[in-house]
Amino acid sequence: MKKFVYLAAVAVLALGACSKNEILYTETEVDPVLFGAYSGRVQTKAGPTDDMNLDALKAHGFGVFATYTGTAAFEDADNDKGATDDFMYNQLVNFGTDWTYSPIKYWPNPTNGQTATAQKISFFAYAPYADPEATSPAADNTYGITGFSQAVAHDDPNDATSPTHLHNFVNYKFAKDKPNVDLMWGYKTKNVDNTDPANPVVTYTINNNLTRPNLATDRVHFKFQHLLSKLGGSWEGTSTYADPAEDPAYVANGLVVKANAETIAPTNDFGTATGTKITISKIVIGSAPEIDAISGQPVTDVDGNAISYATGDQTGKLDLYTGEFTLDAAAQNIQFKQTITNMIDDPATTTYDESNPDSELADRLKEPATVSSFAALPTGVTATAVNVYKDESNPIILVPGTKPVVDIQITYTVRTYDEKLGTKKYSEVPQTVFGRIKFDTIKKNTKYNIVMILGLNDVKFSAEVEDWTAGVVGQVWIDDNGDGVQDANEMYDVTNTEIGLPDNL
Description:
Helix content: under 10%
Largest sheet: 7 strands, mixed
Mean pLDDT: 73
Order of helices and strands: EEEEHEEEEEEEEEEEEEEEEEEEEEEEE
């Protein structure tokens, strides 16, 4: 089983997480409450490569809570029901040939002097569906969505003076040794106010206070948004890792690597049969320690505050009314570590285990178990950024609101072809480089990307020639008059005169 210790947040280049949203809609009869869904993408308990697009959402379903409040609005002070879920409680909505659920519920008819247009039902949803009460041997409710709760909360979590109401929460626990669930929240529409383009205001419309006439021939539609964020994994869940120059379907999957050929002028080409090849043995990416191992000083975040970690299990809650996810622990950050490799031991060894890394390196990058010849080496790292992961493998789940500090260590080998170097015909230099990245506040529903640039300095040469100096001790004869006779005035002290020998140099 692929393992991964999660507990934190990370990143550098922010990329949008959801795209290619789809809608399913079908005309149907008037009275039943019907559902439809848009979908982003999410990783689920089904596995680290389970891409939750619309098809996967159909396979896993989503959960709905609903409250009937009569003629009172859900938010009204005179609504004594609050989030009592007296209409639906964690109702599974799944897909066969259409979105269905059981038992079917119906919109209110005019009764007790009330009109149908005045009677309100509010709906709230999350995905993927979870049943914390399941007791089957296959059920694992020790992480991910672990249950549901109710509490009095502010309608606006950023305004302590806003009205308070009874809210439904989805309880969540981060896994320590397995892929985490990318929790999603269902809303109706997203509204962006660009009055101030530098500070756009984003608000969400939810499916609250719905009445029968408004939905007589329509559905209760949900668009699902990621509540957490992630580092790693492909943009669209595509399992591809080819060089973009070779594969038009190339998709960057969160962690990419390249060489800094733009800033130097190498004397040969990267990745070619007679050039330089850079192969990676291991990449370790994880949360920085609280105390730096070298300096002995506390590690600080982007704001200069010392980082700290929760000592126990890290948990949080999704507010189904506001769509906000908050951590329960006071500690801001969550610890994690992932090893991306094709071997389990020291890079200097050849003890490889490709069946059990946290995540596997792309074939074109990884150091082979044995090197038979330079030509047999893979292409390796070049000036073109390529994916680190072989597949959509174990993306790191990030927590909105955290300001993580991340350490990255890369072990790699630089080989350059050289006909003059014996039977091997290449030079070989293994090395390990280290970097620390501090990130600003992580935003929800965001995919983060790290571009790792291997700094390579080509070996350069220069030369100068020192002048000849006198190699004679005492005096030296110079035949000034050219008669071949050593005259007394032709003897010179070497401390006063330097003679170049031979004189033609």
